[in-house]
Structure formats: structure tokens, C-alpha cells
């Protein structure tokens, strides 16, 4: 038990959460507009591959982030075309993107880099942690040095962006004209249309924003956490983000709390792997890897009935004549 350190769990939680937070905020915009965004997983994978590949070729991580944004936004608009313009089944369209990107990213990685479906290590083309001013001076101060250097500081810029997005998304959703229109399209699109709001245009904008936000999840995985792209490296992050949406009742702050909860269990999973626990002993790694997904099932079972989704979620809008 001495090997399990609370400080490491706290820091790991902060570093695990952004992958889910970006994806959950992306899903929030899409689903608040009335479009089920089951394709988060595929967009994370596509943006992770694009980010890693372009960052490696250019040796510039910001070009990688831009490439991931472009690819994820394009997929989001494609998903929007199927769901909004063509009135197609939103679940089928999202699942198709997930399956297609799972295979396509592997094939492209193998074709371009010939390393078994992964990209080469990015090396210096990664986004590294930021050391805040005064970290060295406070390093020897008990608790304060650790808190300032590892909890507040010592993270990539994308971590700070993830947490900064929370108040921005909350304000946009509840205190801006666009947010009002977005929620109206997700709750009662016919009333929004009668008030002069273009439901299709609003949903397209929401999907574009969702694509951009989701790209940061992929970029974070590839050029911050791992330093390369690996097949199916998202490991269900898109589905966990959707679970966090249900947990948070499609509200930004509560959704982020759900993401942090999943990040915490992921951190605990890493800490207890290979450790002898009292009365239990050493738990097999395969069982430990199940922890986040078992928690997902429990959360869905406990909160699905209590959550109230946008009323028009998943329903194609057909303009009244």
C-alpha cells in the first residue's frame, strides 16, 4: 500500500481528464443542438493520427494540432451532412465514422511509416509541460511546492485550455444568443424555426465547433501523452465522454466533474497495478484495466433514468410547410 501515492493520483487525474473533457465538450455542443454525436471516438482517432503524422513530418507540434483540427472538423461536417441535410440515422452515421477511422488510421500509418500501424516517436515535436515561474524557489516548501509545481504548474498548454474551456462553454451555452438558439434547436426545433432561427445552420455550426473541440482530444493523446500514434489509442475515450454527458445531464460543469471522475479512476488503475493490496493481494492487470469501464456501466445504470436529454436529440428536423 505504501506504493500507492495520493499525490501521484491527483496529478495523474489532472492529466487524464483533458482527453475526456475536450470530447465531452464537443459532444455537448452537438447534442444540445439535437444531433447525437456517437462518432466522437472516430474523430479522436483521426485527429490523433493527423496530429502525430504532421507533427513528425514538420517537427512542429502546432502544425500537428492544426492538422488534427482540420481532419476532425471535416469529419464533423460530413457527419452533419448525413444527419442534418440527408436526415440519416444519426447513430448509424456516427458508428460508421468510428469503424472507418479505426481501420483507416491504421492503414495510413502503416502505408506512410511502415512501423506496424503506428507513427514514429515525435521526440522534440511534442508539446511539453510548462514550468511556471518560481517553481524552483518553492520546490522545497512542503505541500506548497508540490501543489504549485505539479498541480497548478507542470502541465501542457492543452491541459490549461481544457480547464479554461469550462467557464467559456458554460457562458456560451447559457448567456449568449448562440447558446439560446442552440438549446432551442435541441429542445424544440419547430419553435426555434418559427422564431426565425435556422435550425440546420445552427446544427452545422454546433457540429463544426464539436469537431474542433474533439480534435484537441486526439492531439492531446498523440503529441502530449504518448508522443506517437498507435492503433485504437483512444481506448473508448469517446464513449466515456458520452457517459460523462449523461452523468452531467448535458450541463458543462457537471459533465466535467464526470470526466474528472473517470480520470481519477484511470489514475487509480495505474497506481494499483502491480501493487499487493491488503486481503486481496496483487490484482491481475486485465482486471485493473476494466475499472473505468465497470464504473461506466455503474454510472449509466444509476444516472440514465435520472438524466433528461434534449427533447429533440436524435430527431432529424423536417421544416413545417
Automatic annotation (TrEMBL):
<dbReference type="GO" id="GO:0022857">
    <property type="term" value="F:transmembrane transporter activity"/>
</dbReference>
<dbReference type="InterPro" id="IPR001851">
    <property type="entry name" value="ABC_transp_permease"/>
</dbReference>
<keyword id="KW-0812">Transmembrane</keyword>
<dbReference type="GO" id="GO:0005886">
    <property type="term" value="C:plasma membrane"/>
</dbReference>
<feature type="transmembrane region" description="Helical">
    <location>
        <begin position="229"/>
        <end position="247"/>
    </location>
</feature>
<feature type="transmembrane region" description="Helical">
    <location>
        <begin position="147"/>
        <end position="173"/>
    </location>
</feature>
<keyword id="KW-1003">Cell membrane</keyword>
<keyword id="KW-0472">Membrane</keyword>
<dbReference type="Pfam" id="PF02653">
    <property type="entry name" value="BPD_transp_2"/>
</dbReference>
<feature type="transmembrane region" description="Helical">
    <location>
        <begin position="6"/>
        <end position="28"/>
    </location>
</feature>
<feature type="transmembrane region" description="Helical">
    <location>
        <begin position="287"/>
        <end position="305"/>
    </location>
</feature>
<keyword id="KW-1133">Transmembrane helix</keyword>
<feature type="transmembrane region" description="Helical">
    <location>
        <begin position="91"/>
        <end position="113"/>
    </location>
</feature>
<feature type="transmembrane region" description="Helical">
    <location>
        <begin position="254"/>
        <end position="272"/>
    </location>
</feature>
<protein>
    <submittedName>
        <fullName>ABC transporter permease</fullName>
    </submittedName>
</protein>
<feature type="transmembrane region" description="Helical">
    <location>
        <begin position="204"/>
        <end position="223"/>
    </location>
</feature>
<feature type="transmembrane region" description="Helical">
    <location>
        <begin position="63"/>
        <end position="84"/>
    </location>
</feature>
